[in-house]
Amino acid sequence: MAGELPGRIRRVLDLTIAGDHEEFPEQPVFAAPASPAESNRIRSSLFPRACFRFEDAVFQFDSSFPLFGQSFDAEPLKAILDENKGARLSIFGHADPSGDDEYNKVLSGRRAQSIFATLIRNVPIWRDLYVKHDTRGKDKWGLRSIQIMLNVVGAFEGAPDGSGVRIDGELDDPTREKLRRFQEDHGLAPAPLGPPPDRLLDATTFAALVEIYMNVLCLVDAAGNSLRLTNEDFLAQGEGKDGKGDIQGCSEFNPILVFSQQENREFQRNENHDIRNEANRPNRRVMVLIFRPGSRVDPRRWPCPSVKEGTAGCRKRFFRAIPGSAFQNGDVRRAPQAERREFGQTRDTFACRFYDRMVSSGPCEVIFLPALASWDVDEVESAPSVLTKDAPAEPDDPASSVPRGPR
Amino acid sequence: MSTRYVVKQGDYLAKIAREHGYTDFMAVWNAGENAALRQERESPNVLFPGDVVLLPDLGARHEDGQTEQRHHFVLKGNVLKLRLVVEDAFRTLVRDTNCDLDVGGRTNELRTDGDGRVELEIAKDTEQARFVLREADSVFNDTVLDIRVGELDPVSKLDGQVKRLINLGYLRKPVADRNAAEFLSAMQEFQCDHDLLVDGRCGPVTQAQLEKVHGS
What we know:
The complex is a heterodimer of chains A (407) and B (216).
Chain A: E1 8-12, E2 16-20, E3 29-31, E4 40-43, E5 48-54, H1 75-83, E6 88-94, H2 101-120, H3 123-131, H4 142-156, H5 173-185, H6 203-217, E7 247-249, E8 257-258, H7 261-267, H8 273-279, E9 285-291, H9 312-316, H10 330-333, E10 341-342, H11 343-346, H12 353-359, H13 385-389
Parallel strand pairs in A: 6-7
Antiparallel strand pairs in A: 1-2, 2-5, 5-9, 6-9, 8-10
Helix pairs in contact in A: 2-3, 3-6, 4-5, 4-6
Chain B: E1 3-6, H1 13-19, H2 25-30, H3 35-40, E2 52-55, E3 81-87, E4 98-103, E5 106-111, E6 117-121, E7 128-133, E8 145-149, H4 158-167, H5 181-193, H6 204-214
Antiparallel strand pairs in B: 1-2, 3-6, 4-5, 4-7, 7-8
Helix pairs in contact in B: 4-6
């Protein structure tokens, strides 16, 4: 499968894929000599050097709270940036086709923000994601996320095995004790959790906990070194409103897997929703594109809407059908057709022309999950083993799978 | 009697005129014999392979190529320049920025003006130049751009459309088919960026805009 796309996959880890885009020789400038009124306008092109994709398993369904770091998943991104000093990034979140476009725009944008904030250690963005929910109220970080962070940070800082608290969103004594111990260990005032349902932490404790948790997520080696970027590492350098140019949510507009019409009909039955959600896993992803050093954009001219804006700006960039050619419009490209399609093979599943143009020279929009085509939707009552085999365990004890930091 | 000359890739009128011993290429362009060519091609600087230039008998103005190197023979208004306007990927001009433009074995240290423009008088047989922005962290990241003077084709031709889309950063390699997906996508992107009807076809309106945006 990977061979179908240009460029070269460099690493595939549990939760991330890293690749180099196809290298093109710099094209010459084709110039006309000039009379007084003539000139030759040359624009720098914006094509990625490399790509780095966070897989769906980083997030839980309908959630933007990330959990990764089991195998130094951010390390390949560090390697890419070490080889491309001064390269600039932009992050594109993607949702799967269940749910409507506007909802998925919000959710994909929240996932992009979540990853962005992690990479640059921006606590206020996480506080915003924590406090504000998605438009359906499903993506609530809540006490569960606090419990995960307490366990992960505790394990990183040397808490004994088995000392993690239950990840159930219930404020029980072990959770209170775990929090009190964290505050004590870090010289923080023993402020309690806020009232339900959000159970908000006081700002100081939240910042301390989140920063260490982000460090753990971005670990690149067993010595405890962590990848940490800044606004200046991104295309718009943090100058855009709501991160415009640096982070965007692509809603469900750019699927790398589109079911066949028959599969889609089956999946629409309620009892098949779990299978559908599993099968859609490749589509839920966050793509980091790495552009050549010196690349930068004026966020006011960047075509993608910000993570806080609706989908109108996306639609402006959709492919338009061209009569007399095989060129279909964006909504047809992303919709189920007679056959199941994968971007890696057919190259015709993205609705957004701008995104398609940028990622088409790279290897990262490939599907690395086990083949999904060989099962019959009519017979399957529960998810077949190929679908569950690689599914991430529920993070009921994330502490056990997190690398230990120096004691 | 005039001489018939068939244009090759890389030709432009000043170069053709010079090769045939004319000092004043505009006189060749404006000669009655070339009325049809003038109608077909808007500029003597953007010709297409296969075009026919008729080299008229210009009598006294027809001088030996050797003497043409002396500046006082070059008529005002017939000076040939290489003029670039430099932008980042989203149309922000690269203003007041140091750059090098190498032409004819000489490096010229220049600076873009407030309109992102840089220009240099060039000899009328110039075929190549090299351009590099000299400031750190430039949008071209120290890439030396190889400039092929005279290689731009008329905007009415697919090659001319492709080359302009490459110069403007929409395409990253040449295509030979106007139904190629990369070309259609790039064309739609250009149309979208310039508020044109987004149909992927480079008709007269899009051609005019492409020529205007490119500057030639």
